[in-house]
Amino acid sequence: MIEYFVSYFDPESQSIKTGFVDSRIFDNVRMNLVAEHEVGPQQPIDDEFARRFGGTALLWFATQYPELRKFLGITDGNGNVVSL
Predict the structure, then answer these.
(1) What is the pTM (predicted TM-score) of this model?
(2) Mean per-residue pLDDT for 53-68?
(3) Domain spans of the chain?
């Protein structure tokens, strides 16, 4: 069985939740996947990728839940604050 990692903001509990779901629940679901990162020797999953990936995910949450914006303290790696 293949499982997908999912993460979402739960406004009721005011928390970010993560976990795994059975991939079969997505069989007939249209998903708008806009980010892709090739992985290999020339495209490692390193600290910089992890920083950008995590920052992007949190910014996406804040586009759907504007109340999160005041809690974001994300920088671009050079100390410049990234905002929506």
Answers:
(1) 0.76
(2) 91
(3) 3-71
